[in-house]
Automatic annotation (TrEMBL):
GO molecular function, one term: ATP hydrolysis activity
Family: Belongs to the ABC transporter superfamily.
Gene3D superfamilies for this protein: P-loop containing nucleotide triphosphate hydrolases
Lineage: Bacteria, Bacillati, Actinomycetota, Actinomycetes, Kitasatosporales
Pfam families the record matches: ABC_tran
Protein name, per record: ABC transporter ATP-binding protein
Domain ABC transporter: 2-227
Superkingdom of source: Bacteria
UniProt region (Disordered), positions on chain: 308-384
Residue ranges the record marks as coiled coil: none
Length: 384
């Protein structure tokens, strides 16, 4: 089991992860979701001892990664598929990792077979496609036959067949009783792969629930109602009548109305009684992707000026669906905005005293399977 308690990471003035507490249990795939820049990779790096938390802690089976005996055989990770020496063949890359972790060389061919790279095992990694690179990274993660597996965006660059393969692999690893923690920013993919979800936005926990509960809470139906174009008066009249009848009405971008709280026949009766003609009255189901986008819409760092999210308006958001208050530029611990209706943190600890000195940079000892090249990934990186 992975357990994070009050996990916080600051890079100078930037808070990448704030007071994150969660558990990742064995035997199921746990999806780790969040928009770009929400802190998923930073959290994974802290789990793997590659980044030192500014506050809080995270353990695997009760111990921090660095104190795990024989860590590379207990924990496997895919963090950055490009973290491969391009001049090495796939087999040599895996052999080097196996040697470093005391893993028998015969395991290399086993994992090459599992990920379907036997044919290209003697080809240099620099000639690999993105998808082949992902497969090689997954092979590296599986090398030590570990109980705990972390995958950061494992389906990046994979074709539909590859995506299906990863999905089935994750599930079968979990079915063997392993702890499988998979990050993604694709809700639709996670809904098919994971049983449990941890959703973060701007480094904060936004949801920690089973996929089943997430679906139950977010896939409420609604009706789309459209009055004839150019008859604004009819639209307003209908809106007022529907609200009076107990419905919730939200305008959609194309001029239609999104109505919740009233069954379709009732909407039809209300329109008839109000003497408003309808061009459309259709049942709809809010998609999980949409629910996720709504949940995280206030926590998106990077957004296109043409982002359709601007048009998404939550009907009656649950407390955890409330958008985050705008984060102050420096996100100091003491003035961190509290989420409206923030759920009590079951692992909450009293706030730690401010650090006297900046935390020492990590001194890598036992690195995860993908670590050798990955260790350099953030060294000179300031902000992406
Ligand atoms: N070494 C660093 N120095 C400064 N800021 C950093 C560093 N690493 C990460 N950050 C910042 O912390 C925030 C979280 O980044 P992180 O990479 O963890 O997010 P993410 O959820 O994995 O994003 P993505 O989905 O895009 O990979 C971002 O704003 C990023 O710019």
């Amino acid at each position: 089991m992975i357990e994070a308690v009050g996990l916080t990471k600051r890079y100078g003035a930037k808070t990448a992860v704030h007071n994150l507490s969660f558990q990742v249990r064995p035997g199921t795939v746990t999806g780790f979701l969040g928009p770009n820049g929400s802190g998923k990779s930073t959290t994974m790096r802290m789990i793997l001892g590659l980044d030192v938390p500014s506050a809080g802690h995270v353990t695997i089976g009760g111990l921090p990664y660095r104190r795990l005996p024989n860590a590379p055989r207990k924990v496997g990770a895919l963090l950055d598929a490009k973290a491969v020496h391009g001049g090495r063949t796939a087999r040599k890359h895996l052999l080097a990792l196996a040697q470093h972790a005391g893993i028998p060389a015969r395991r290399v061919d086993e994992v090459l077979g599992v990920v379907g790279l036997q044919e290209v095992a003697n080809k240099r990694a620099k000639g690999f496609s993105l998808g082949m690179g992902q497969r090689l990274g997954i092979a590296a993660a599986l090398l030590g036959d570990p109980e705990v597996l972390l995958f950061d965006e494992p389906v990046n660059g994979l074709d539909p067949e590859g995506i299906l393969w990863v999905r089935n692999l994750m599930k079968s690893l979990a079915a063997e009783g392993r702890t499988v923690f998979v990050s993604s920013h694709l809700m639709s993919e996670m809904a098919l792969t994971a049983e449990h979800l941890i959703v973060i936005g701007r480094g904060q926990l936004m949801a920690d629930m089973s996929v089943k509960d997430f679906i139950a809470a977010n896939s409420a139906g609604f009706a789309r109602v459209r009055t004839p174009d150019g008859e604004a008066e009819g639209r307003e009249k209908l809106t007022a009548a529907l609200v009076e009848a107990g419905g919730q009405v939200l305008p959609e971008q194309d001029g239609a109305l999104r109505v919740t709280g009233l069954p379709l026949p009732r909407i039809s009766d209300v329109a008839h009684a109000a003497d408003v003609r309808l061009w459309e009255l259709s049942p709809h189901q809010a998609s999980l992707e949409e629910a996720y986008m709504r949940m995280t819409q206030g926590a998106v760092d990077y957004r296109s000026t043409a982002d359709p999210r601007a048009a998404l308006q939550p009907p009656a958001p649950a407390p955890w669906q409330q958008p985050l208050a705008a984060a102050p530029p420096d996100w100091p611990e003491s003035s961190y905005p509290v989420l409206p209706g923030e759920r009590p943190n079951p692992y909450a600890q009293p706030p730690a005293a401010p650090p006297q000195a900046p935390p020492a940079p990590p001194a890598p000892q036992a690195a995860p399977t993908t670590a050798p090249a990955d260790l350099t990934k953030r060294d000179s990186e300031d902000a992406r």
